[in-house]
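Example (one chain per record):
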Amino acid sequence: MSDDMIRLVTIGRIFRWRWRFLAIVAVVGALVGYGASVVFPPQYTASASVLLPGQWEERQLLTQVDIATSSTVVDRTAAKLGWSGVSGSELRDLVSAKAADGNIITISGTSGTPERAQQLSDLLAKEFVSFATRLAGGSAGSTATTGLDDLRQQVVETNRRISELAKASDPGQSVESVQARTALEKLSTSLAEAMTKLNEADPATAKAGMAVMGPAARPTGEAPPTRMQLVVGGALLFLLLGVVGHLVAARMDRRLRTEPEIAAALGSALLGTVEVPEERHAHRPRDGGNRGLFRRVLGIDTRWEPRAPQRAGDEAGRRIRYGRVCARIQDRRPHPRRLLTVVPQGDEIALRAAEQLVAVAENDPSPSSSSGERPMLRVVEVSVDRPTVPDRDTESGALVVLSAGSWTAEELSGIAEACADARHEVVGIVVADRVRALPARSAGPPADDAAPALAARGRATGGSA
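Predicted structure:
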């Protein structure tokens, strides 16, 4: 299986087991987005277009964009608007300009109402055209214009002289006279074309032709981000953070999942692995009090990364495995003395496996053991936070039953130390594994011992021993 498929399966498992928690997180994110929309009121943006006739290079258009949003133009706009509490520096953050195709400068203004946004963009466009025209007609522009006028007069005078020379030339039809007149006419035409191009390239003429292409359209919708966008964005952001948090927690998870690791943490031998038919919420910790209620409401009392249950065998096969474990227990403790069966508190799968072991040990002798005697087991749940095991009384050791992937090495080491403090030797370890329960078959009448009696279990809580 590829890594991508594994990741998709993992994310699907998160949504399957933690959908309630993720839904609550998404609602919280939506509320945060709504609160942000209240703190930051909606804004509206209107745009006006200014046409620049003639030929303009790209860098010249960018220069005009900078002029449109310059401090001079914005300050003049703010002074004419006369909005209370809005200065030129504050207004500069509410306006923008960009160059569009066709020598068009689009000027945009943003405000809290559609009317004010339209008024701002229209007045800013007018001030830009006025300032650009005045800038083109400045002192430097006046000098350039005077030079161009002198040049035009010289061209006109030259054309007049050429016409006089053409008339004064030999009116005959000789080849030389015709060529002279033709050359003078071409020279006059070239001067006229050059003068036309010079007039078209005159920056003062071009800039004087700037025009606002109609009033700005009044905006009908809010400028992004809208309130709906903030709400949806907050929900999606918090949902993504929730999924990422689960993935990070899974990456940092230190719970032991293999039998050798569990045996090494408890410092004892593995006696076998038994199967427990899957039940709904069998891996749900049984927390009490307000904390447990809070976890159940949020849906975080259910583990989202349990190992996928294997296909279960029949009831006879499971009883054989329990019987073999009992035989190994009896081989390690040949004398028929009681054993303390320690189960981590909250491990429902291990508790059911321990109860089944007690039932099998009480009802089925162990013919494969050396003595043929039955081990006597007493189940005790021990808190992993502050493990305390009852002191040694009639028991000759402790048997630890737990499920894989539920506890860390530190927690299991604490249970082993608590057993040692209570003078219990850890005889062995039994790992309980979930399996899919097969549908019941209506064969014959059930056996007399098909319904195992549940063992009375104790509870050990308190401080460290």
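Caption: The chain is about 50% helix and 15% strand.
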